[in-house]
Amino acid sequence: MTVYYDQDVTVRQDARKDAEGVLKAALGVALVPVDPVPIARRLGMNVVDSYLDPEVAGALVKETGRDAVILVNGADSPNRKRFTVAHEIGHYVKRSASPDAFEYVDRRDNLSAAGTDQDEIYANEFAANLLMPEEWVRKYTETTRSPAELAIVFGVSTDAMNFRLKNLGIS
Amino acid sequence: MAAEEPKEPAASDDDVVALAIQAIERPERARQVTELDPFERQRHKAGELELELREKYANWLLKGLGAQIFVADLAFFLYAAVGVHWKIDPTTMQIWLGATVVQVIGVVGIIVRYLFPQRNA
Q1: Would the pTM of this model clear 0.90, i.e. be above it?
Q2: Please, what sign has the CA dihedral across residues B35, A131, A136, A157?
Q3: What three-state secondary structure class fits A72?
Q4: How far apart are CA B31 and CA A139, in angstroms?
Q5: Do you find a cis peptide bond into A33, omega within 30 degrees of 0?
């Protein structure tokens, strides 16, 4: 059973609001699956396919006075890359108020649902809300689609879809 | 020009960050990603074009329907107001008005059922 602490709840709520704001500002119209790459580019980040160890999902690096860059593992499927980019956008949005340099290297275990670090909880929740907005998930589940079918619609892994459904109390 | 592929994948945090800094400093040598799934975009574009076409058809059908109702109402009004001496069989008027109603229902039916069908019905 997953236990959420008060601090985690606040972080998740912030992530949800921020993701909704970014999605609305970037796309305006509901289109699934969401492609987070144009959103990252509109936020001033470059997304680069890189030769990374299989354990490294991606990274976000920002140097003072320069545009940030998101690295994604070139060997990953589009669905995994989608989640990684959305996750890194979450880190970027969380740090966007600060002009300082920062760097995040995300390994598979960071992106897993069991993350306990506040930054990772925020980024995971942000990614889930960006790619699978609650309103759209509820709308699509009205027609009783299976998690696998929903995963195709939203362009995410079945695991990510199942976790999202569980979090929303749908499954 | 694309950068030369390193022999080993970046595994440590330092190596990954170094790779990112290279991409920041020499963006022209990095494999920039502009979209994840071009096919999805094409699918959306095709969907949007289809919707646009349907909207166009629906608009023309509705405009035609409006004109038809206007003409029918005007003719009926003239018939009622000034057509006292017109020699038209009442059955003809009944059939004509009945046909107009059927036509309206038919056009609305076509729009709703065939132009904008419920995908999950």
Answers
A1: no
A2: positive
A3: strand
A4: 37
A5: yes
- Residue pLDDT, tens place only, A79-103: 899 999 999 999 999 988 877 889 9
By the CB < 8 Å criterion, does A82 face chain B? yes
Parallel, antiparallel or unpaired: strands A102-107 and A56-62: antiparallel
B104 is in which domain, residue-wise? 13-115
CB atoms within 10 A of CB A13: 11
Residue of chain B minimizing CA distance to A65 = B24
Q: Between chains, do A37 and B30 touch, taking CB under 8 Å as contact?
A: no
> Starting from the edge strand earliest in sequence, which strands make up the sheet with A56-62, in order?
A102-107, A56-62, A69-73, A46-50, B31-32
Listed in sequence order, the residues at least 6 apart from B115 whose beta carbon sits closer than 8 Å to its beta carbon are B54, B57, B58, B61
User: Residue B31: beta bridge partners?
Assistant: A49
Q: Are A78 and B36 in contact (CB under 8 A)?
A: yes
Q: How far apart are CA A66 and CA A70, in angstroms?
A: 13
pLDDT digit string, tens, across residues B64-94: 889 988 998 898 888 888 877 888 888 888 8
**Residue B73: inside a domain, yes or no?**
yes
Number of domains in chain B: 1
- Is B19's CB within 8 Å of A50's CB? yes
Q: Would A106 be classed as within a structural domain?
A: yes
**A68 inside domain:** yes
Q: Provide the number of CB pairs (under 8 Å) joining chain A to chain B.
A: 95
